[in-house]
TrEMBL record:
Belongs to the SGT1 family. InterPro entries: CS_dom (IPR007052), HSP20-like_chaperone (IPR008978), SGS_dom (IPR007699), Sgt1-like (IPR044563), TPR-like_helical_dom_sf (IPR011990), TPR_rpt (IPR019734). Residues 157-246 form the CS domain. Keywords: Repeat, TPR repeat. GO terms for molecular function: protein-folding chaperone binding. This is Protein SGT1 homolog. TPR repeats lie at residues 36-69. One of its GO terms (biological process) is response to stress.
């Protein structure tokens, strides 16, 4: 049955019916989920439909099932080039070329990748797009307003919610999925792609494959499966601010800075009346003084509790919050198994009475 669907999909490719081809191959994959060729062929259909992140995911699956399948690397290289992930594309194409008897197509694409990588290395200054307030003809705006409205498209609500925050060198993505077995989760990193798959037996598969706002360093990215979420840490390739998690062509990309070219002697110095200050040294000294600061009484106790909370895992933090709040500040526990399933009663010091406030 799967072979019949595969044959029909090839006919659909010949007739340029790519959506039909992808649908037929999806049905065939459902029947034969471990056949690498089906994923590689569906990757080609997704490339034709410009579903590029899906194409990369299919190519990765084909490579996982059959690491010696040349066309899987060709599909991945092609899709990554269209996504402007030239380093990832080149690596895939070079592997495919080493496995293919006829590697002429791989060689041509590798040369194209080299040219694009070289072009990308130059810093360019983007031109600000015009807004309505900047020399835009009002007649053009009026013509756009007169266009018929597109019918609303129903969007399926994702199975799991995700959110993100960032530091200057890192983006942290959180997928709020509770009690998911680690073996059911697959996370892969590309040059500008994050791919997350959750396959729990008996449930519909969840796939999250955004093209990221900026490029990352895949080898330095990692993830952790916790009780209530999946926490993914992406290392930025450049220390720029991401205005969103996903890529958009409407945002002007900031100028790139070649960090390797900035030496210690080129660090910015700040003038004073008589001497140049070493601000890095001053910052390190302040941090050391804060760490070595000796406090007494409540201040020392508060500092001790802050250090415990800062270095604790998620369950320990939850235990500390719950016990402190429910006991009106008289109990502080770090054992979630002990306090998680019951209300924490107050425990005032000897000789004192716990007062319950009424609102």
């Amino acid at each position: 049955m799967a072979s019949d669907l595969e044959a029909k999909a090839k006919e659909a490719f010949v007739e340029d019916h790519f959506e039909l081809a992808v649908d037929l191959l999806s049905q065939a994959i459902h029947l034969e989920p471990n056949k690498a060729e089906l994923y590689a062929d569906r990757a080609q259909g997704n490339i034709k439909l410009n579903n590029l992140t899906e194409a990369v995911a299919d190519a990765n699956k084909a490579i996982e099932l059959n690491p010696s399948l040349p066309k899987a690397y060709l599909r991945k290289g092609t899709a990554c080039m269209k996504l402007e992930e030239y380093q990832t594309a080149k690596a895939a194409l070079e592997t495919g070329a080493s496995l293919s008897q006829d590697n002429s197509r791989f060689v041509n694409l590798i040369k194209e990748c080299d040219n694009l990588i070289e072009e990308e290395s130059y810093t360019t200054i983007p031109i600000q797009e015009k807004t309505i307030a900047q020399d835009v003809n009002p007649k053009d705006v009026q013509q756009q307003d007169d266009l018929p409205e597109k019918p609303p498209v129903a969007v399926n609500k994702p199975k799991y919610r995700h959110e993100f925050y960032q530091k200057h060198d890192q983006v942290v993505v959180t997928i709020l999925a509770k009690k998911i077995p680690k073996e059911s989760i697959t996370v892969e990193f590309g040059e500008q792609i994050l791919s997350v798959s959750i396959n729990v037996p008996g449930e519909d598969a969840y796939v999250f494959q955004p093209r990221l706002f900026g490029k990352i360093v895949p080898s330095n990215c990692r993830y952790e499966v916790l009780l209530t979420k999946i926490e993914i840490r992406l290392e930025k390739a450049e220390p720029i601010h991401w205005t969103s998690l996903e890529f958009t062509r409407n945002v002007i990309v900031p100028l790139r800075v070649n960090a390797s070219s900035v030496t210690a002697s080129q660090r910015p110095s700040y003038p004073s009346s008589k001497q140049t200050r070493d601000w890095d040294k001053i910052e390190a000294q302040v941090k050391k003084e804060e760490k070595d600061e000796k406090l007494d009484g409540d201040a020392a106790l508060n500092k001790f509790f802050r250090e415990i909370y800062q270095d604790a895992d998620e369950d320990t933090r939850r235990a500390m919050k719950k016990s402190f709040v429910e006991s009106n500040g008289t109990v502080l526990s770090t054992n979630w198994k002990e306090v998680g399933s019951k209300k924490v009663e107050g425990s005032p010091p000897d000789g004192m009475e716990l007062k319950k406030w009424e609102y």
